[in-house]
Amino acid sequence: MSDATSQEILVREDLGPVTRLTLNMPGALNALSDAMLARLNAEFSSLMDDHAQKVVILRGAGKAFCAGHDLKEMKAKRDAPDKGAAALRDLFDRCATVMQMIPRLPQPVIAEVHGIATAAGCQLVASCDMAVAADDTRFGVNGVNIGLFCSTPMVALSRNIPRKQAFEMLTTGRFILAERAVELGLINRSVHSDKLETEVMELAKTVAGKLGSAVRIGKRAFYDQIQMPLDQAYNFTGAVMVDNMLDDDTAEGIAAFIDKRKPSWSAEE
Question: What's the pTM value of the predicted model, to 2 decimals?
Answer without folding.
Answer: 0.94
